[in-house]
């Protein structure tokens, strides 16, 4: 399984995630430090904000708590998700995620 992470300046990194990890853990584990994940994945900091490839269903699967946090972000888009709330499953194969701007 492979997913592509697009960094803020546009370069792409292909990573092989481990099912059961979160996307945030996958991104951090790949050495990408643009995701701060200050709360450690507790859905309370929004520093793990990513944009999901629009063709992917998980773009619309945020929980109520996640939606609230995302709504407080000035970088919110319809395809915004918090990467700590996305579990890696085989369905993510081929997905592309762009790291959102800070704030
Ligand atoms: S790591 Fe804090 S909300 Fe995702």
User: Which ranges are low-confidence, i.e. pLDDT below 50, for 5 or more consecutive residues?
Assistant: none
Strand content: 15-25%
Overall average residue pLDDT: 94
What would you call the shape? globular
Q: Looking across the biggest beta sheet, what order are the strands in?
A: 2-1-5-3-4
Computed over alpha carbons, the radius of gyration is 12 Å
Q: Helical percent range?
A: 10-25%
Query: Terminal Cα separation, in Å?
Result: 31 Å
Number of helices: 2
Number of strands: 5
The H-and-E topology, N to C, reads as: EEHEHEE
What ligands are attached or bound here?
Answer: FE2/S2 (inorganic) cluster
Q: Explain this structure to me?
A:
The protein is an alpha+beta fold. Helices cover 15% and strands 18% of the residues. The protein has helices spanning 23-29, 64-71; strands spanning 3-6, 12-15, 49-52, 80-82, 96-99. It starts with a strand and ends with a strand. The model has no long low-confidence stretch (mean pLDDT 94). Bound molecules: FE2/S2 (inorganic) cluster. FE2/S2 (inorganic) cluster is lined by residues 24, 37-39, 41-48, 82, 84.
């Amino acid at each position: 399984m492979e997913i592509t992470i697009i960094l803020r300046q546009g370069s792409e990194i292909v990573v092989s995630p481990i099912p059961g990890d979160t996307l945030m853990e996958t991104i951090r584990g790949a050495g990408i430090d643009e995701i701060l994940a200050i709360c450690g994945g507790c859905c309370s900091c929004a520093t793990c904000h990513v944009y999901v490839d629009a063709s992917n269903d998980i773009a619309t699967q945020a929980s109520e708590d996640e939606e609230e946090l995302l709504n407080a972000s000035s970088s919110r888009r319809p395809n915004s998700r918090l990467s700590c709330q996305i579990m890696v499953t085989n369905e993510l194969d081929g997905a592309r995620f762009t790291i959102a701007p800070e704030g």
